[in-house]
Backbone:
């Protein structure tokens, strides 16, 4: 006689598939944005935006206050965060560009998370990928 599984075991095995598929939009978005933003971070720096970010990050690292002792175009939190990252001692411009890439990747994942709560998970994935692909490579 064939051995059959109980109803609870069958429900557990059926429940695993949807849990794996719930991660699919996040994994696709993570893969796309990592490839896109990390590759863009290695390209030529843009003098205006990267220059302002570098100047305020170095100023913050040296203890200067944003908006009063050093010009800051992007708000004080970016200066403090980038100033802390620069204290690690790596190449300043590449470090700033990679940090911004990581923040953009996290922002794309946040878009997926919000859109998943509001709409369908695939809509979140498509929305995040469309948002990321409109970036002019900084």
Residues:
């Amino acid at each position: 006689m064939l051995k059959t599984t109980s109803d609870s075991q069958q429900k557990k095995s059926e429940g695993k598939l949807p849990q794996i598929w719930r991660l699919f939009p996040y994994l696709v978005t993570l893969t796309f944005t990592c490839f896109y933003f990390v590759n863009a971070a290695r390209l030529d720096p843009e003098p205006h935006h990267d220059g302002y970010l570098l100047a305020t990050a170095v100023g913050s690292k040296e203890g200067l206050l944003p908006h009063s002792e050093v010009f800051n175009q992007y708000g004080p939190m970016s200066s403090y965060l980038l100033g802390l990252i620069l204290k690690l001692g790596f190449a300043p411009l590449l470090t700033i560009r990679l940090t911004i890439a990581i923040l953009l990747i996290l922002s794309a994942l946040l878009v997926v998370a919000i859109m998943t709560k509001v709409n369908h998970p695939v809509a979140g994935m498509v929305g995040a990928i469309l948002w990321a692909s409109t970036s002019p490579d900084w």
User: Anything to note?
Assistant: Residues 40 and 102 are 12 Å apart (CA to CA). The two ends are 66 Å apart (CA to CA).
